[in-house]
Amino acid sequence: MQLSQLIELAQVGAVESLELISLEGGFYLLEIREVGGVRHRLRDEAERVWHVRSVEHARDLLRDMPEVPFYLLHASAHEEMCGLPATAGEPLRVPLSMRSAW
Q1: Contact, 18 vs 31, CB < 8 A?
Q2: Name one Pfam family in it (predicted).
Q3: Which of 30, 49, 63, 68 has the fewest beta carbons under 10 Å from its own?
């Protein structure tokens, strides 16, 4: 889903939430959850998944959008540590503000 489509969906109340997924290497993906559970990744005009650089970059991209629930998802670091048993733990899910506090 492209940014313009996301903004249109949000304006009609069809976006349930946004999840900024933290990935190894210091970048993020923005996942859109529509009302009804359908999920999309934010894509650029060439239909490539958009790699977001930071929470502030995501906020900047979303500045023209109405507020919707917005979360940062981060996989547990414990799953990457050697010697620990594998677990099926949920990722850390932290609510964020869509607008910068500054």
Answers
A1: yes
A2: DUF6482
A3: 63
Q: Radius of gyration of the chain from Cα atoms?
A: 15
Sign of CA dihedral 74, 51, 33, 69: positive
Nearest to 42 by CA among 55, 33, 29: 29
| Tokens read off for 46 | 């060439």
Supply angle C-alpha 85, 89, 94, rounded to 5: 135
User: How many alpha carbons fall within 13 Å on the CB side of residue 32?
Assistant: 24
Residue with tokens 């799953």: 79
Nearest CA to 7 among 62, 69, 45?
62
Contact residues for 63 (Cβ-Cβ < 8 A; gap 6+): 99
